[in-house]
Specification:
heterodimer, A: 7-stranded mixed beta sheet, 9 helices, B: 5-stranded parallel beta sheet, 16 strands
């Protein structure tokens, strides 16, 4: 059992929890994720470790409530326990050797982007961060990102805050105006990552995306998370979650992510009933 | 009284009833059945059955105790060698082990050793007399090993057995398990209707009773490394991480929705209890027409599970003939009784989709040619014999190999090209103090072979630590 030490509501549906997990905290590097199971009857879900402190043995998880399990997790308070957490899993992103990096985060993907922003900044790279949200009250981690970015751009779909439009609008301007961008990283909904990858391909700039496939065990024993990258089948949990955005079959990824839609909707309805 | 030529039958849940539930199919022996069957044992002096058992259970002795009506003693005799008898009595392929060499089996059916072992284990579990007493444990203690730390990686049959034996010697044993539950393949692979999970829980309790500590949710190689274990004062490490990496066929359409590896399918159902969805929150999607590709026990388990999840038509698609099927005869028989349709001498060449979902599987007929390196006749495709099978789900059960997660993240641990860990005859790896056994060394094999390896490794670890500390 893993105790929740702190909880914070970042936006109406985006929550941040700090959990005691010393073994995981000691080994985590930016890009690693964990698999957790909220309770005995729960499913195993993958979530990125947003932050970690090996001295205190704490890890921070930021997540958006999108279905049954994340809503249940969001309902837990300080002092409550999470049944199982395993990690750190997946490859962390190699950060050495880049001078100028553009990092894009969409929606709750921004939380997953944050450890990479911090990581690249601490490595001494020039960090340009673009975070996009649907509307103003869904913008998260503005201060944290600002602390570790040389430049920070915020976009909202409805124009209620920052640039009116998509993260790709800002990226397009940067690609046209800036020299020497040697890496782009995009984390967010699949259509956003795909749009970023399509755009940077024309400019020949290396682009890494972090894939959010369906996972069960997260240790490479089942292949639920398989994706096609450069024509080959890869397991997101062990070969990723970060991949070359120019080689990912996004169409297939979106199809696979939609497989359990009906079941997820059913679980959601049942939870509505429970909560009235 | 003349000896009965046939095994005392075991009652089973009828097929038409059992395809609607996940309850265990064979019901086990009653006291009377067990007494009748025990009478069939000839108590031979040379005991070939014991040599046939990978963990050398003193079979005639325990059967004698059953004859004498002392089922508690029978259990103690079994447990002196076998730490998981309720599991073994159920899932061992006795027909190619202890029962194959049973003298009774030369002219008649062999003694039903597996059924008797199961009876003894269940009898004692039901009465709470299955846990080893302090005195029994005391018999194995080696004072020099008292309190020395040993680490076991993986809580499957090999790891559980090694841990139990090491604990009996006096080691302070910690098992590190990546999943949130113990048992390895006993938990996530073998379905409830063949091995109830309550039985696995009970066996694991017996091992904890020996003083073994079990740490769940720890992926060695990720959460902690073997080097760190040694730095933490562990004197020796046993690797029993199994062969859990699923093989795919690499044919077009394999990433369509509705295509599962057997590992994913069975993990969802067994470990995550997706068959109880939505009470349990992990979903599984099976509709009307399911094909399972492969001919081993995993394929039978997946097919029979799909049937229980409500699939109308479940096919086994296997590239060789029935005689070459690696699955146990009993499981193949059970599958047939449950209406599984066998499409033998057929191999998939492509999976075709509609709207991103499985719609049809294209198969090619096969014929058998010369024997290959495995001694089985090689299947050869018959040109132009392609045909289509209407489906909505495909489950790939063509085998597994060792997961490279641990070996990739451990320095100086030598492996075979297919991923298996290389060991010497004492199950010692290329690294001092590190032993390995079970599927991670042999590739996917049987539960009892893994247990045999765990036992042997524990014995060699004992010798190694005793010598090291001289």
């Amino acid at each position: 059992m893993y105790e929740i030490l702190e909880k914070e509501v970042l936006a109406p549906t985006i929550k941040k929890v700090k959990v005691k997990a010393p073994l995981i905290a000691r080994k985590t590097e930016p890009g690693n994720f964990i698999i957790l199971r909220v309770d005995e009857k729960g499913e195993r879900i993958p979530l990125t470790v947003a932050d970690h402190d090996d001295k205190t043995g704490e890890i921070t998880i930021i997540f958006q409530e999108v279905g049954y399990s994340t809503k249940l997790l969001g309902s837990l308070e300080k002092g409550d326990y999470i049944q199982d957490i395993v990690g750190p899993l997946g490859h962390h992103i190699k950060m050495e050797g880049y001078k100028k990096v553009v990092l894009l985060g969409g929606g709750s993907g921004t939380a997953l982007l944050y450890p990479k922003v911090k990581g690249f900044y601490e490595m001494g790279a020039e960090v340009i961060t673009i975070t996009g949200a649907r509307t103003k009250n869904l913008v998260i981690l503005e201060e944290e990102l600002d602390n570790y970015s040389d430049r920070l751009f915020i976009t909202t779909d409805d124009g209620s805050y920052g640039h009116h439009g998509f993260v790709t609008d800002v990226l397009k301007d940067l690609l046209d105006q800036e020299d020497n961008i040697d890496l782009v990283i995009a984390i967010g909904p699949v259509p956003m990552m795909r749009a970023v990858a399509d755009m940077t391909e024309d400019y020949g700039i290396k682009t890494i995306v972090s894939l959010n496939s369906i996972m069960v065990d997260g240790t490479g024993m089942c292949g639920a998370c398989r994706v096609t990258v450069g024509g080959e089948t890869k397991f997101t949990c062990v070969d990723g979650p970060a991949f070359d955005g120019h080689k990912v079959d996004f169409e297939e990824l979106m199809n696979r992510l939609s497989f359990y839609q009906d079941e997820e909707a059913l679980a959601g309805e049942m939870e509505e009933e429970v909560n009235g | 009284m003349a000896l009965k030529p046939k095994k005392t039958p075991m009652k089973e849940q009828p097929p038409e009833e059992r395809i609607n539930n996940f309850d265990e199919v064979p019901r086990g022996y009653s006291d009377e059945d067990a007494a009748l069957e025990a009478e069939r044992c000839l108590q031979c002096k040379h005991q070939p059955c014991v040599d046939g058992c990978p963990v050398s259970v003193p079979i005639p002795q325990f059967i004698q105790a059953v004859k004498d009506g002392d089922v508690i003693k029978a259990n103690q005799i079994i447990k002196s060698k076998n730490n998981l008898p309720a599991v073994c009595g159920r899932v061992c392929p006795q027909e190619e082990q202890c029962e194959e060499v049973c003298v009774m089996g030369i002219k008649n059916e062999p003694v039903a050793i597996g059924r008797l072992e199961r009876y003894v284990a269940d009898y004692n579990m039901d009465r709470g007399t299955d846990k080893a007493s302090k005195e029994e444990i005391e018999k194995y203690r080696i004072p020099e090993l008292e309190g020395k730390k040993a680490a076991v990686i993986g809580a499957g049959p090999a790891g559980l057995t090694a841990a139990a034996d090491l604990a009996k010697y006096g080691f302070k044993v910690t098992i590190f398990e990546a999943l949130h539950a113990t048992g390895g393949v006993l938990r996530y692979g073998i379905p409830e209707f063949r091995l109830p999970k309550a039985i696995v829980d009970e066996e694991v309790e017996g091992i904890k009773n020996l003083g073994v500590d079990i740490q769940l949710n720890v992926v060695v190689g990720k959460t902690i490394t073997i080097d760190e274990l040694f730095a933490d004062g562990y004197e020796a490490v046993f690797i029993g991480t199994g062969a859990g990496l699923p093989k795919f066929m690499n044919i077009p359409g394999e990433n369509l929705n509705g295509v599962y590896s057997a590992n994913e399918f069975l993990t969802r159902v067994n470990l995550m209890k997706a068959y109880k969805y939505p009470e349990y929150k992990t979903p599984i999607k099976v509709q009307d027409k399911v094909a399972v590709v492969g001919g081993g026990n995993v394929a039978m388990d997946a097919a029979r599970t799909a049937r229980r999840l409500g699939a109308e038509k479940v096919y086994i698609v296997y590239r060789r003939a029935e005689e070459q099927m690696p699955g146990r005869d009993e499981e193949i028989e059970h599958a047939k009784e449950e209406g599984i349709i066998f499409k033998l001498l057929n191999n998939p060449v492509a999976i075709h989709g509609k709207n991103g979902r499985v719609d049809k599987m294209e198969c090619i007929q096969m014929e058998l040619g010369e024997k290959d390196s495995s001694g089985r006749r090689r299947p050869i495709p018959i040109e132009g014999s392609n045909w289509m099978l209407d489906l909505d789900t495909v489950i790939i059960a063509i085998g597994q190999s060792p997961n490279p997660m641990l070996t990739k993240n451990t320095k100086d641990l030598e492996t075979e090209s297919w991923g298996g860990i290389i060991t010497d005859e004492n199950l010692k790896t290329s690294r001092a103090g590190v032993y390995a056994g079970g599927d991670v060394v042999t590739g996917a094999a049987t539960v009892i072979k893994a247990m045999g390896a765990g036992k042997k490794a524990a014995e060699n670890i004992k010798e190694y630590v005793l010598n090291k500390n001289k």
